[in-house]
Amino acid sequence: MDFYRILAKARSNPGELDAGDIAVLLDPPDAAAQQELFQAAYRKKVELCGKRVHLRGLIEFSNICTRNCLYCGIRRDNDRVSRYTMSMDEIIRSAAAAGEFGYGSAVLQSGERNDRQFVDLVEEILLKIRELPYDLGITLSCGEQSLETYIRWRKAGARRYLLRIESASEKIFRAIHPADASFTGRKDALQRLKDAGFQTGSGVMIGLPGQSIADLAQDILFFRETDLDMIGMGPYLPQDETPLGKMFPDQGNAAEKRLELALRMIAVTRLVLPDVNIAATTALQAISPADGRERGILAGANVIMPNVGDVSRRKDYQLYNGKPALDENNSLIREKLIASLAAIGEQPGFNEAGDPQHFFNRIKKNERI
Ligand code: SF4
Questions:
Q1: Ligand 1 atom 2, closest CA
Q2: What string of DSSP letters covers 271-333?
Q3: Dihedral, 183, 188, 193, 195 alpha carbons, nearest 10
Q4: Which letter, b or e, does each residue of 336-367 get, where b requires 16 or more Cβ atoms within 10 Å of its Cβ?
Q5: What is the pLDDT of residue 319?
Q6: Atom of ligand 1 nearest to the CA of 74
Q7: Across residues 179-201, what is the average pLDDT?
């Protein structure tokens, strides 16, 4: 049967998988085949980093955004959101919490702004984090910026950057963004991140209206062709206050089906790109609070991003419906995470940077060219 033949090829020669092969892997014929897929991907994850999960303390430091993505709860035109930017003190306290908790890394995430005040603010945050007595690997997720800005932030101490393309299909990208968003512009920004020396990450939403298995296979090829170091992807979750959420509200067990499809995307991505970091995102946990992220790890993901920001901010940073742990304090989040990883035979990689191996392989490969 095609599926098992291609799964064998994925184990031995993942570089030879084409779009057709990837589409077959994304659509296993039955539950047993799906389980084999997850197990094969999990074995690759264990080969990459053992039975450990890299942690990133997530700081959602501002929900002000100049963009209007049609799916996003903090889009510019959503006037039901109370807008905030954390004070410098609050941000640095949150970063220190990530260090104290032993997370080894922190992610600074915000809406997109390109004004000078914002660019300066991020640079100042990075410089202040460097003064903390922790060796924190910092990831930024602050949208599309100029090369000059990326270089400034890189020099100030950030070493990873996440910029999701959301779909590598131009047709779908256009359908979920307003007219002023440019597909080519997003791809160019990913190239600028690599030029600035960042460990570069991107990702997609899974189960978008009108998205096919063939589209998702193209997404994985895009990850490979763009030579990405990190992938962050999750099931699409409608948000009530957005145009897309209003047009396509969830019905029946659609969310559970998207969760399963997202797990298959994680597994196939792990097989195609064995040395990248893949996040088990919060969107998995939103659909299945008890075990969504853990199922992501067992499907081949190796990174989790527990929140370390102030609890009071969380309700104002809801990109989609059902954001989990809205009122849990950070110590409780940490305790629950340790317990839930132990339950699947995994442990947190405390005080480890958890850099993606792919980044170092990419740099070496480019030096040889
Ligand atoms: S997805 Fe990002 S850029 Fe788009 S509206 Fe939301 S925060 Fe802004």
A1: 111
A2: HHSTTSEEEE-HHHHHH-TTTHHHHHHHTT--EE--B-S-GGGGGG--SSTT-S-TT--HHHH
A3: 170
A4: ebeebbeeeebebbeebebbbebbeebeeeee
A5: 78
A6: 6
A7: 97
DSSP-derived pairing of the beta strands 52-55 and 303-304:
parallel
pLDDT at site 330: 87
Query: 51-368: what fold?
Result: TIM Barrel (3.20.20)
The rounded distance, in Å, linking the Cα atoms of 189 and 195 is 10
Domain boundaries, the chain: 51-368
- For ligand 1, atom 7, the nearest C-alpha belongs to 111
From 10, 27, 53, select the one nearest 265 (Cα to Cα): 27
Q: Tell me the best of 83, 112, 281 to mutate to test the pocket of ligand 1, counting ligand atoms within 8 Å of each CB and taking the most.
A: 112
| Whole-number Å distance between alpha carbons of 26 and 107 | 30
Report how far ligand 1's centroid is from the alpha carbon of 264 (Å): 25
Q: d(Cα 341, Cα 285) in Å, to the nearest integer?
A: 13
- The pTM of this model reads 0.96
Calculate the CA dihedral of residues 178, 184, 186, 187 and round it to 10 degrees.
160
Judged against a pLDDT cut of 90, whether residue 345 lies above it is answered with yes
pLDDT of residue 86: 96
Q: Which residues line ligand 1 (CB under 6 A)?
A: 65, 67, 69, 72, 74-75, 111-112, 143
